[in-house]
Amino acid sequence: MDPLKAEAPPTDEELVALAAELQAASVAAGLSIATAESCTGGLVGHILTQVDGSSGYYLGGAVSYSDGLKRSVLGVTPEALERHGAVSAQVAVAMAEGARDRFGADITVSVTGIAGPGGGSGAKPVGLTYVAVASAAGHEVRRFHWSGDRDANKRHSAGAALRLLALRVQETASARDAREAASPPDAHG
Fold it and tell me: In sequence order, what are the residues at sequence separation of 6 or more whose Cβ sits closer than 8 angstroms to the Cβ of residue 22?
């Protein structure tokens, strides 16, 4: 089973608990976070700011529900939208990288999908969601297909976004710690 995919949609309490863990790890590592959301409509940002002290690491985000805002706010190219569609791995990555570039965050997460109940097709059914994360180490994108109603699909997507962010924060902090441990002491001390 995918560790980012929960069986049941997470409750408010579970989402806030994930955000609290992410906040603690981000603050300890000195990393800033920003979000780029479409189908979740700002839910990830909302959950992050439910934890007191979130301004210590969360810079903010963009809710780019329309393709026009994906282009103008996040820099997603018209070619990516036309060729792959707004709900695609390529656009999720472009959203995350655009947010990182524009907002100056260390790590960004993006979510794009079809929450339902309408809007799906045979090729892109309701519940199809892509979550991407971007940092100096590059990007990663995950594909999910949720089977709940609109609220459940949004909650599943937000939970996956928080878990993927937490993994990238942990990887980034571990890589930095390993580099620092391998560096010789400063001779000029």
Answer: 33, 48, 162, 165, 166, 169
CA 158 to CA 47: how far, in whole Å? 8
**Span 33-77, pLDDT tens digits:** 999 999 999 999 999 999 999 999 999 999 999 999 999 999 999
Question: What is the rounded CA–CA span in Å between residue 141 and residue 120?
Answer: 20
Asked if the model's pLDDT at residue 162 lies above 90, the reply is yes
98 pLDDT higher than 60: yes
CA distances from 22 to 30, 62, 73, 76, 159 (A): 12, 19, 25, 27, 12
In the block, tokens 């780019």 appear at: 64
Query: What is the model's pLDDT at position 187?
Result: 53
Strands, sheet with 58-63, edge to edge from the N-terminal-most edge strand: 58-63, 33-37, 107-113, 128-135, 138-145
Can you tell me whether residue 122 is helix, strand or coil? coil
Contact status, residue 33 vs residue 21, Cβ threshold 8 Å: no
The pTM of this model reads 0.92
On the question of a cis peptide bond just before residue 117, with omega within 30 degrees of 0, the verdict is yes
Q: Are the C-beta atoms of residues 156 and 146 closer than 8 Å to each other?
A: yes
